[in-house]
Design goal:
globular; 3 helices; about 40% strand; alpha/beta; four-stranded mixed β-sheet; VOC family protein; 8 strands; about 25% helix; Glyas_Bleomycin-R_OHBP_Dase
Length: about 120
């Protein structure tokens, strides 16, 4: 069987805050709490695990870990409306709504841990 991608986990020092941030921008609910929580969206699960919990499971695993070296992408219905909602919540916008040459309109932002998030729609 070909591997099937089901989601990713972000390792963080503040599980409740990061989970709440993603629940807010994705219109989803948080399941769980510290040291593990998740936000389920169609197609995948975004999990959050504490740095302390990860380090206890795999000692030394967090020594060279960093945030922001990747982009999480979520398809949305209306990028411009989503952008207005983000501004109303004082969320840092890295790039306002822009239509890319490859047919996506997207808004880029940064989560509280410094990870880049791309909310996009096909145009």
């Amino acid at each position: 069987m070909q591997p099937h991608f089901t989601g990713t986990a972000l390792i963080t020092d503040d599980v409740p805050a990061l989970a709440a941030f993603y629940a807010a921008i994705l219109d989803a609910d948080v399941e769980g709490g510290d040291p593990f929580a998740r936000v389920m969206v169609p197609g995948a699960v975004l999990s959050f695990f504490s740095t302390r919990g990860m380090e206890s499971m795999v000692p030394g695993s967090m020594a060279t870990a960093a945030s922001g070296g990747f982009t999480l992408e979520f398809q949305v219905t209306d990028v411009d409306a989503r952008h207005e909602r983000l501004l109303a919540r004082d969320i840092e916008i890295l790039k306002p709504p822009t239509t890319q040459p490859w047919g996506r309109r997207s808004v880029w932002l940064r989560d509280p841990d410094g990870n880049i998030v791309n909310l996009y729609q096909e145009v």
